[in-house]
Amino acid sequence: MVHDYYHDLSAALLPQYLAPDNENDEPVPDGALINGMGICSTCEPSLKKLATFGLDRGKTHRLRFINVGAFAEFDVEIDQHELSLVEVDGVEVEPYRLHRFRINVAQRYSVILHANQPAESYWLRARMIAHCFAGIPEDLKPEVLGIVRYTANEEKPTTKGWGEAMELECKDLNTSEVVPAVAMPAPEPDALIYIRSNFEIGPYRLSRGFFNKTSWRPAEVPTLVQAIDGLASANRSFSPEGILPAYDISRQMVYKIDGIKTIDLLIDNFDDG
Length: 273
Known about the structure:
2 helices; Immunoglobulin-like; five-stranded mixed sheet; 273 residues; 14 strands; mainly beta; four-stranded antiparallel sheet
């Protein structure tokens, strides 16, 4: 697991983010972690505070990565080891060789690593794409380290990274050349739903996220319970001519699908970030 780390709770950060004149000024993380480890009070982190992974020399290993963070995207690499991407978000793909891969929030990748290098231990590096933040604090350390070991030797790795320049664009890993291991054609859709995703400044100069013209706000009654109550009362909400009064459409974007259908969702991101 790789993820960003905030010293403050979201309860303290959210009012600041949603305040007037803070449009798209997302709170910047204070650091990053690998498997929940990597916090240090000095510039040179203690090896005992870093995530460590023991691999058998001469064997082939599958490593699964997931970004469980809130905001930051990461570039991930292991010193001196070429990786083969074999799975993207649950879809197995033909092996795709790379030295480094970029992983965004909630994305999942599996890579194959051959433990065939001469040294005993290597740095695992995960670096936040800090140039995509609204601002970079002077004390921010965007890179968090882990250790890959072939033996039980606890000496500090002395290896160097691949040294290739990082891409400066704020975008995902380019998967256009990645081919699924088992090709599955998409089904023909019965209907197309267009969704526009963006931020808008509403009353009192407050910025909120929108799907089409709906900005979600928590409801007192959960959505599923509303559906159950509507069905139980046999009201017009669930008839073909109904306008779904069981839901608060000022708070919830609701589409009614008549029966079992295959729906094509076309989502346009109009956010300038």
